[in-house]
Amino acid sequence: MREPTAGAKPEPQRETGWRKDLAASLVSMGLGAWLFWQTFSFNVTASERVGGGIDAAGYPRLLASLTVLLGITLAGRALWKWRAALPCPAASPAGQGGGKLRAAFSFAVLLFYTLLLEPLGFLVATPLAVGALLRIVGGRGALHAAVAAVAFTAAIFVFFRYGVNIVLPEGLLRGISP
Amino acid sequence: MAEIGALLGELGGLVGAAQVSALLIGLVLGIIVGVLPGLGPLLGVTLAIPFTFHMDPVSSIALLVGFYQGGSYGGAVTATVLGIPGTPIAAATLLDAHPMALAGRASEAVTLATLASWIGGLVGGAVLLLTAPALAKIAVRFGPAETFALAALGLTAIASLSQGSTLKGLISGLFGLMCATIGTDPFTGIARFNFGRTEFSGGLTFVALLVGLFAVSEVLMQIERTLRGWQASGRVGVAFLMFKTVFTRFFGYVRASLVGVGIGIIPAVGGVTSAFLAYKLARDFSKEPERFGKGAPEGVIASEAANSATTGGALIPMLALGIPGDPIVAVMMGGLLIHGVTPGPMLFFTNPDVLNGIFATFLIGALLLLPLGLALLPLFIRVLRAPLDYMLAGVLLLAIFGTFAVQRQTLDLWIMWLFGIVGYAMRKAGFPLAPLVIGFVLGPIVEVNLRRAATLASSDMASYFLGRPIALGILVLAALTLAFPLLRALWQRRT
Fold first, then answer.
1. What is the overall mean pLDDT for chain A?
2. Chain B partners of A56 at a C-beta cutoff of 8 Å?
3. Which of A88, B28, B59, B201 is in Cβ range 3.0-4.6 Å of B22 for a Cys bridge?
4. Residue B262 · residue B213 · CB < 8 Å
5. Are A114 and B410 contacting, i.e. CB atoms less than 8 angstroms apart?
6. CA nearest B155: which of B139, B135, B169?
7. CB pair distance less than 8 Å for B389 and A134
8. What is the DSSP letter of A87?
9. With contacts defined as CB-CB under 8 Å, which chain B residues touch A60?
10. Which DSSP letter does residue B54 get?
11. How far is it, in rounded angstroms, from Cα A55 to Cα A51?
12. DSSP H/E element including B103
């Protein structure tokens, strides 16, 4: 790769947000269109059609139409940004690759935890999930993470069970859980 | 005056040990979440909402008010000690508080910030007490057209003035309104967007949406960023000498507080603007403006008094008009709705005890902020040294079980994760989250009043609104708030 020569004017950073805007506009249009279509499944009888069309189905239909309309506007703006190749006013701090992976792994742990919460129970599933999170997020050693996870689980259990009197899922420990 | 005296006497009788305990817990935990960079009062109020389900309405609002006041103040401690704002509203505070700390005057800066927050809170509370009932007396005459117009103004203001583009703010608000239509139609009782599941007949669980949108997405963003610990250096204590500034700089405190409360009343503008505006005014009025930014005590006073007073101002439109002025107030409004208490002018007639309880807890919270903030200062400084991964794990566990505790069903957890991802994606794409939650809270008000107005108008909406000048005026104002960013851009281009 060529090194930039000393004193050379740096290439201005170009607006790249148009891709995100275009994607967001497509999501808005798609969501609005889908919701609009869904409103036809509402069981509104003729006697309930009052208010000049702004009824049980008409109101969400109006919102869905506006969502599509604003999605189209956003798409237009994204394409205009792309055409104009505007200099980026304030590039948002991009997440580092490792950070994104860390967030994705953490989220996966949380989803698995939610799946296992009822069958395993709070006292079994929580230390496993918290331990995994501390390993992923904080890079803690196995022993450190395990001790901290047990302490977190105990604190949350005591707070919910005895502090606000809420029974957490018992799962495998049903009948023997405190 | 006699009326105010009677009201104050009544307020005292409404707050018992349970309410004061809730307020104290809220204040202490609120300051802690305010102190921790990246968290802040919004996250604090969000995480507190599930625990209010099992409380009486006044205790629950006391807890939330505590989080709001404490969280708004806590950021100043971080701004002083670390030089990074614990919350966005403390950004103006650090301009002078941190240079003071670097010059070995951290104790003075923190004491000044606490005093300023205390006075700002008291002024905000006093204006809230005096203004909200008067405004409600006017608003109680409003019909469906005016109420719809007010809700529309609340939404357009937050969409156009919050972070990001107006267009994205509007899409976010519309998404919130759409989410509010899930469940049973309020007029006919027919099912809408329930995807064949009876669990959705009551609509989306507010707590699950809220916690996912704000707490989960925030934690994911924090995990994604480079993790590093914070180093709070130096000893910080109470500088009692600063108390004399209450007399020597009295007008500075009051001026900033009035700016804060005035800005707070305007929907969506909020604490950041009020703090910077008060800071600028203090600099403009100063005989030595060159000291600002280099450790001027007046700068700390202005910023903190203003952002603290904003909390009182922001509650006025919610209580008097039923329109939340900022996302924290929207969350608090949701907390009241959970208890069947609908904020707005009718609250003054239907639930005067709850309303007076809100006034009382706000004033007591403002009073307690000073002794609590100074007495527990070593604890708050210690919190800054806590490992971030422990903090995030704690926030996640509270988010999960706070949400679970509401209905004790895992479906709410899935909704929370879904909105966590939605919130994360929206943050990444530059969509503000506040309009979504305000849209969700205002959704039923918008729908019911629009449909009532449409029924009354009997298919001629234009004539109906033209015949109602107040509603028309508010709608014109709503249109102007949408045009404001465009006009500002055009103006900037011309000049």
1. 81
2. 185, 187-188, 190, 192
3. B59
4. no
5. yes
6. B169
7. yes
8. B
9. 178, 181, 192-193
10. G
11. 6
12. none
Question: Token pair for residue B69?
Answer: 């006041």
Residue B227 has pLDDT above 70, yes or no: no
Is B226 within 8 Å of A111 when comparing Cβ atoms?
no
**Sign of the dihedral defined by the CA atoms of residues B27, B32, B38, B43, in that order:** negative
3-state SS class at B205: coil
Instruction: Find the CB nearest A59 among B220, B421, B450.
Output: B450
Residue B248 has pLDDT above 80, yes or no: yes
In chain B, residues with a C-beta closer than 8 Å to the C-beta of A20 are: 428-430
CA atoms within 13 A on the CB side of A121: 13
pLDDT tens by residue, B129-170: 888 888 888 887 888 888 888 888 888 877 776 666 888 989
Q: Which residues pair with A14 in a beta bridge?
A: A87
B147, B452 contact by CB (below 8 A):
no
Q: Is the dihedral of CA A83, A87, A89, A91 positive or negative?
A: positive
One-character DSSP codes across B369-408: HHHHHHHTHHHHHHHTTS-HHHHHHHHHHHHHHHHHHHH-
The residue of chain A with its CA nearest to that of B461 is A52
CB contact under 8 A, B188 and A111: no
Q: What is the rounded average pLDDT of the residues A25-39?
A: 94
Rounded to whole angstroms, how far apart are CA atoms A60 and A92? 34
B457: nearest CB among A52, A64, A110: A52
Which secondary-structure segment (H or E) carries B346? none
Q: What chain A residue is nearest to B229 in terms of C-alpha separation? A: A138
Considering chain B, what is the average pLDDT of its residues? 84
Q: Which residue, B19, B24, B12, is CA-closest to B375?
A: B24
- Measured CA to CA, the distance from residue A80 to residue A5 in angstroms comes to 33
Are B193 and B401 contacting, i.e. CB atoms less than 8 angstroms apart? no
- Please indicate whether, in this complex, the C-beta atoms of A96 and B394 are within 8 angstroms of each other: no
SS3 content of chain B, % helix, strand, coil (to 5): 80, 0, 20
List beta partners, residue A87: A14
What the block records as the tokens of B367 is 């009073």
Find the CB nearest A107 among B174, B220, B460.
B220
Backbone angles phi, psi at A56, to 5 degrees: -55, -35
The pLDDT assigned to A110 comes to 94
Task: Find which of A45, A107, A161, A168 to mutate to test the B interface (most B CBs within 10 Å of its CB).
Answer: A107
Interface of A with B in 25-44 (CB under 8 A): 28, 31, 35, 38-39, 42-44
Tokens of A159: 């707070």
Q: Which residues contact A5 (CB under 8 A, 6 or more apart)?
A: none
